[in-house]
Sequence to fold (234 residues):
Amino acid sequence: MTTLYRTFLATQVTKGRLAGLGALGALAVLLGVAVGAGDRTDPVTGGIGLVSSYGLALFVPVTTLVFASAVLGEPNEDGTLVYLWLRPVARWRLVAVAVAAALTVALPLVVLPMTLAAAATGAGAGLVVATLVATSLATLAYAGVFTWLGLRARRALLWGLAYILVWEGFVARAGGTASLLAIRAHARSLLARLADGPPDLVEVSLATSIAVPLAAATVALALTVRRLSHQDVQ
Fold:
C-alpha cells in the first residue's frame, strides 16, 4: 500500500501544479493582509467575505479538483490504470489510497494559506478556527466527488470547473434545493456559524452543514469503488 500511495503522489505532484496553486495560496494571504489593513469597523464580516468568496468559492474547489480528478483519471485516460487494477488489492483500498494521496497534497495547499489569510484579517481566533474547519471539510468533500468524476468522465477537469462555476457559482446561489446540493453552501454556513458571522450567510443548521459534505464524500467514494470494480480497464 505504501508503494501504491507513493505512486499516486508521484503522478500528481508536478512543479507546474505546485507553482500555480501555490501562487493562488500566496494571493489569499495577501488579500487577508489587505482586508486587515482596510476598514476595521467589522473585521469579522470582511474576513468571512474573503474566506467565502475567494477560498470556498474558488481556491479550495479548484485546487482539490486539480489533484483529485487526476489521481485516478489520468491513469484511466493514458491506459496505465490497468497496472493498478491488476494488483491484488481490494478496490476500496485502491480508492482509499488514491483519495489519501490527493488529500495529502490538497489539504496543506489550501488550508494553510486560507488559515493564514484569516489570521491576517485581524478578525480574531474565531474566524481562524472557523476557516480551518470549513476549508478542511470542503476539501474532503470535493476530494471524494472529484475523484469519482475523474474516473467517470473524460476531461474531468472541464466538467469539474463547470460544476464549480456554473452549478455552485450561479444555480445554487438562487437558493432552495439547488443550494442544498452544493458543497460550498454548506461550508459557507459552517464558516459563518463558527465565526459568528452575518445570519444571511447561514442557510442550514450546524449539523446539516457538517453531515451533508461528509455524506457527499462517502457516496462519491462508494460510487468510485463501484465504478472501478465494474468498468472494463484496458
Q: What stands out?
A: DSSP finds ten helices and no strands in the chain.
